Amino acid sequence: MKIVDLRGRYYKEVEEVQYLIKRSDVETDLYEAAVKEIIKNVKERGDEALVEYTEKFDKIKINPEDLIIPFEELEKAYDEIEEEVRWAFEVAYERLYEFHELQKEKSFFKEEDGIILGQKVVPLEKVGLYVPGGKAAYPSSVLMNAVPARVAGVEEIVMCSPNPNKYTLAAAFICGIDTVYRVGGAQAVAAMAYGTETVKKVDKIVGPGNIYVALAKKNVFGVVDIDMIAGPSEILVIADETANYKWVAADLLSQAEHDELAASILITTSEDLAKNVKNYLYNEILKDFSRKEIAEKSLNNYGHAFIVEDLETACELANYLAPEHLEVVTNNPFDLINKIKHAGAIFLGHYSTEPLGDYILGPNHVLPTSRSARFSSPLGVYDFVKRSSVIYVSKEGFERVANHAINMAKSEGLEAHALSVKVRKEDI
């Protein structure tokens, strides 16, 4: 972890800041051709291709009839997991459901002298969830992706996961997933986008995955909708001298353990805090840490502690970096909320540690990464509905606006547009 003193320097011109900005530049050319070939094969050969790729990439030999995981396996997994874990899943589901209920949109209509205008909000019909399997199993991802779809009223939710463990299956059971397919990678994304003999074609694909999954989602966008192209995880902590260095260090490590490309960033007004956090990370926590190799590489490459003059500068730098997770660990965190513009999720106060948001609080943990918080939002109910404009015009309403439409059509040189209004005007 590198400590960088920014006091008296313009942060945009500092090499270490720009290094973090460029962190997510991925050589997609290395993977693009392989992903396109996988998509092409699945589109053309269906289940046959899925079976081949499952054996090749996941080392699992299956037949087409094994692609669907029977409902009984989900129920069995739910019964077999530890009681305290099952209860945690249930509590998380309820909290997520209650929070996302607040995001529901309503259709509306307004009337004005012979014209009725409105917006009709309807849920998507079929949604596909991608959930990593095997060692990288995240049952919380099932909950986070499925619950807002359920709240939105999506008719059918299917899930693809390579070799899912009992926790992932139990989470799928709690969420009422309609069908779970034993398939992963780019081939799973292609199957949900185009459909096969077994896998149902969906309208939208959501969920995290590796570079192959991300590129597959990018390539099928337009055939189906997707949630986002997610990059490596990241956390940024704004802290002053009141912060507990042990707590801050643990929070930074919570992202570093995810991925060697994960970024853990501290922006602080206290030089002592920066030094204590670094010392505690390397000399205490990492010593016997089970995921030491991953976390240490992440911290060595993308761990930074920036020392700034004041908290206003800290917020400016945080906005520039636009992090996925932003913790504000200061004496008066609410004083800074209006200064923060770009962040996927904002955690205020000493006890609002990011992992609580990952699992149990209620807001969604599917968040924009790689500075896309400048223009993107967390996954929510609004991602699982679509809106249609509703328009009714009476004769009286037509007469009020017809000439304006004709004149605008003339300005664009679109004669038939003007004509469709004129023929009605003339008959009147």
From TrEMBL:
InterPro entries in UniProt: Ald_DH/histidinol_DH, Histidinol_DH_CS, Histidinol_DH_monofunct, Hstdl_DH
Cofactor annotation: Zn(2+)
Binding site for substrate: S233, Q255, H258, H325, D358, E412, H417
Keywords (A to Z) from UniProt: Amino-acid biosynthesis, Histidine biosynthesis, Metal-binding, NAD, Oxidoreductase, Zinc
Cofactor notes: Binds 1 zinc ion per subunit.
Catalytic activity reported: L-histidinol + 2 NAD(+) + H2O = L-histidine + 2 NADH + 3 H(+)
EC number: 1.1.1.23
Active site: E324, H325
EC top class named in words: oxidoreductase
Top-level division of the source organism's lineage: Bacteria
Biological processes per GO annotation: L-histidine biosynthetic process
Pathway stated in the Swiss-Prot or TrEMBL entry: Amino-acid biosynthesis; L-histidine biosynthesis; L-histidine from 5-phospho-alpha-D-ribose 1-diphosphate: step 9/9
Cited HAMAP family: HisD
Family: Belongs to the histidinol dehydrogenase family.
Name assigned to this protein: Histidinol dehydrogenase
The species this protein was found in: Sulfurihydrogenibium azorense (strain DSM 15241 / OCM 825 / Az-Fu1)
